[in-house]
Amino acid sequence: MKMRSEGIEPNGFTFVAVLSACIRVLELELGFQVHSSVIKMGFLDSVFVTNALMGLYGKFNGGLGLVLNLFEEMRQRDVASWNTVISSLVKEGMYEKAFEFFRSMQEIGPLKADYFTISAILSGCEGSIDLMKGKEVHAHAIRVGLEGNLSVNNALIGFYTKCGSVSDVVTLFESMPIRDVITWTEMITAYMEFGLVDLAVEVFNKMPEKNCVSYNALMAGFCRNGEGLKAVKLFIRMVEEGLELTDFSLSSVINASALLDMCMRCGRIADAEKMFNMWPSEQDSSVVCTSMLCGYARNGQPDEAISFFP
């Protein structure tokens, strides 16, 4: 608005910059206003501006229709155009439609799928648990020379974790020329998914660098595999080391409290007591205290149950 009041008209670069800012801060209302200005000033013919508009609408639930409309109206498209519509379809769970667009992209030419295309469509194959389609995409990645791309390989690990076997994942991991913290974290998740807790811990300990996501993956894996005590210990370690605690970290601890309750219900009182004694003091303990109280009462230990009353 300030530009126009000073007699300076926005151009395509201006619109892309403003729309990129709207995407970063998830400002849809301003995005609508910019879209209106784009139409009035005739910039919808700009591939970059329309891509930015699709990128904005693709971030919001219910925005897929706008993405598809913009895409269909484009006179020219580039790889980013196709990537945006494919990733938007995957985000909305429309996996078969996303795969149709992926195939159309290859058939129309001369555009070639890039690492973002492959990663997005692999997420769709993972979401639909479609092993054959995922292998087809993997083969395509090899044909177009993306078999060594880090992002593609990370996406493949996630895909084979959900749809393949542990040997598929290990073979891929060992063949990767480059690995990052995402790669190592995906391996932790993979081993935990296959119930190989010790191997997941081994990978965690070998990681050159770790972040809160790595810790969360290990902690969630412990909970999924009935290792609540280890999950609580890891949470305490995160607190002591001053690591960032995300909502995911806290939900994993909540899952650990559910495991404590399960131990009490199954008569595994010693395990429940270990978990309770290690419960972080700064976390709300009302739920676990109730689980302990009820568990003691259920297992014929009234004196221990009474000790939980103030």
TrEMBL record:
Keywords: Repeat. It comes from the Eukaryota. Gene3D superfamilies: Tetratricopeptide repeat domain (1.25.40.10). SUPFAM superfamilies: HCP-like. GO terms for biological process: RNA modification. PROSITE patterns: PPR (PS51375), PROKAR_LIPOPROTEIN (PS51257). PPR repeats lie at residues 78-112, 180-210, 211-245. One of its GO terms (molecular function) is RNA binding. This is Pentatricopeptide repeat-containing protein. It comes from Corchorus olitorius.
